[in-house]
Specification:
heterodimer; A: 113 residues; Alpha-Beta Plaits; 4-stranded antiparallel β-sheet; 4 helices; 6 strands; B: 460 residues; alpha+beta; 29% helix; globular
């Protein structure tokens, strides 16, 4: 089934110079396996194409059921020269949580609904 | 077994210190690690310093440290709590003078130390002559392009000078730019006598410092989620995080009893990855941390056990962050109510665009956003209800090298109130031009910076 990430994961984003970075966290281990499969660099690049983002980097962290995502050249040169309302990229994580993935119905967070 | 409790102080210049009181009164902390400097705060402090006239009190430091210590010191002294703060900014000595004056006026005794040597703005030519290109870390660009426009340039120092200041008996350590987590690693290394090449213990201290450096974000604040954020209890009374650390670097992460917020596996792993690039190689001046071996055990009741940090030898180079002038931003806003709120904002953007063109202003970049629709979610905003919004605000910003153009841009908007689309929101003033800054990250050989480090201690 198609599921938006916010139903099965949580996320926070921040900035370093011209990079936006996101931590994406599965609520549970079965969901983490799905995230690793579904949230790929290619899908992320497509999802954030509207920001004009450059290279996307991605690291899985099995110990904390998380994906570390870095969007290079995503903040108009950095928070202090950006013209955007969200110059600090704090809402990039919210943007990510709107991404849809293919997930099995038996994931814990989906069953409790 | 000896443990040391370090509590979070501020997470940025302007943050609240009210929660620090609870950490001192009921959290059993021995140290408060207070981070006043974001990547850009030095730019604000530099502007302060430029504005100062001869005879003015010293400026260029985070001024909030003075009222914070004035309020907390009697309590802290009673509990034997020491402070490590990077509030010195561009002028740690000025901060020390201001705090020392306040303490003397009140008759308080304290040893206040400063750590200086991080600023390299005046040394750029010297460093380049010594063979340091100071090229842009990400793009490789030559620093010559921005050299004349630089406002500040500071190297991130590590925890060693902080530990040295504490070994000289300091009760309060004021630094300029240091790695945020060094504010915590410094006291831990000093208290436990950790060897500076004990990479796993360095990594443990760095991890805990990183978890503490954003105040409330380490204890349930800004918990990025749908729905879950609303389950964080008692935001108004949110307690800042506290790390109770053992000699081996393992720790209990918690907060003061009776405070709001939440310390859990979920809230602290969000902070762990916050503003981190490669999590297997998180660079600091003291160690390179691999977050992939960390083990978090949530014991419930706002208690998480942390162990398993692994470190690799510290880098040979230190990171410099410099800021340079990069033009001006002009801002204009206007809001409209239903009906066709979005369409009226869009029309207004077109009208303003035409006026700018007619004037022939040299505008490098224009940004158009619709507050209430896409100003925070950008291209990922859901357009389903765009044409039925109750209300919408147009926010337009331009980048220009001409300050006068940036100032004039906002003044184009009020005219729309009588001569543009109907049901206009109230105009709440015109925003003046804002100076834009580019960030210049670069690397520099550690020895060239560290030989200028100076530690001074003053007793009040």
């Amino acid at each position: 089934m198609r599921v938006p990430l916010w139903k099965v994961a949580h996320a926070r984003s921040g900035d370093k110079a011209d990079r936006a970075d996101i931590g994406l966290f599965a609520f549970d281990a079965p969901t983490y396996e799905v995230l690793k499969r579904e949230v790929t660099r290619e899908r992320l690049a497509a999802h954030f194409a509207g920001m004009g983002t450059g290279l996307v980097e991605l690291w899985p962290l099995d110990n904390i059921l998380a994906l570390k995502i870095v969007l290079n050249a995503a903040l108009q040169g950095g928070a202090a020269r950006s013209l955007r309302m969200d110059n600090l990229g704090k809402n990039v994580a919210a943007q990510l949580l709107r991404m849809e993935i293919e997930a099995p119905e038996h994931l814990p967070r989906l069953k409790t609904e | 077994m000896k443990t040391i409790r370090v509590g979070a102080g501020l997470g940025f210049y302007g943050d609240s210190w009210r929660p620090v009181r609870a950490s001192i009164e009921r959290g059993g902390v021995q140290y408060i690690a207070s981070d006043h400097l974001s990547e850009l705060t030095l730019a604000i402090l530099q502007k302060d310093r430029h504005k100062a006239k001869p005879g003015d009190p010293p400026s260029g430091y985070a001024r909030d440290a003075v009222p914070m210590l004035a309020e907390l010191w009697p309590l802290a002294a009673r509990h034997g709590v020491k402070f490590v703060l990077n509030a010195g900014g561009l002028n740690p000595e000025g901060a020390r003078q201001a705090i020392a004056k306040t303490f003397r006026d009140k008759g308080w005794k304290a040893k206040i130390a400063t750590v200086t040597g991080d600023s390299v703005l005046e040394r750029i030519d010297e460093l380049r002559a010594a063979g340091e290109p100071l090229a842009h870390m990400d793009t490789g660009a030559d620093i010559a392009a921005v050299r004349g426009r630089m406002l500040f340039a500071n190297a991130y120092l590590g925890a060693q000078p902080i530990a040295q200041a504490l070994s000289k008996g300091a009760d309060i350590v004021l630094t300029g730019r240091v790695a945020d987590a060094a504010l915590t690693l410094g006291p831990l290394a000093y208290e436990f006598g950790w060897q500076w090449d004990d990479w796993d213990r360095m990594a443990a201290g760095l991890t805990l410092g990183h978890l503490l450096e954003c105040s409330g974000q380490g204890s349930g604040g800004n918990f990025g989620s749908a729905g879950e954020w609303a389950k964080v209890p008692d935001y108004a009374n949110l307690g800042y995080p506290i790390a109770e650390v053992s000699e081996d670097g393992s720790a209990l992460f918690t907060k003061a009893p009776g405070t709001g917020g939440r310390v859990s596996f979920d809230t602290i792993r969000q902070q762990l990855l916050y503003e981190v690039h490669d999590p297997h190689a998180y660079f600091s001046p003291d160690v390179v941390l691999d977050m992939g071996t960390l083990d978090f055990k949530d014991e419930g009741n706002d208690r998480v056990r942390i162990r398993g940090a692994s470190g690799a030898p510290r880098p040979k180079a230190l990171k410099i962050v410099a800021g340079y002038q990069d033009g001006w931003m002009g801002t204009g806003m206007i809001g409209f109510a239903w009906p066709e709120a979005y369409a009226k904002c869009e029309k207004s953007a077109q009208i303003i665009g035409a006026l700018v063109k007619e004037r022939g202003w040299a505008v490098e970049d224009t940004n158009v956003e619709y507050i209430g629709y896409n100003s925070l979610l950008g291209a990922n905003a859901d357009p389903t209800y765009r044409d039925q919004l109750n209300e919408c605000f147009l926010r337009m910003t331009i980048r220009t090298q001409d300050r006068k153009v940036a100032d004039a841009f906002g003044r184009l908007f009020p005219w729309l109130g009588l001569s543009g689309p109907p049901y206009v929101g109230s105009m709440k003033g015109i925003q003046p031009a804002k100076e834009l800054l580019g960030i210049w990250p670069a690397l520099v050989s550690r020895e060239l910076v560290e030989r200028n480090i100076n530690i001074e201690v003053e007793s009040t």
